[in-house]
Amino acid sequence: MTVKGLDHVNIIAGDLDETARFYGDLLGLRRGETP
Fold this sequence. Notes:
Layout: H1 16-27
């Protein structure tokens, strides 16, 4: 199966900045606006 897109991801973590950095480096994800 080929992934063509990803709409959104929700991750619950104790250290939001470190978690965002980890997934940004690993998968190229970027943080969006929060409600």
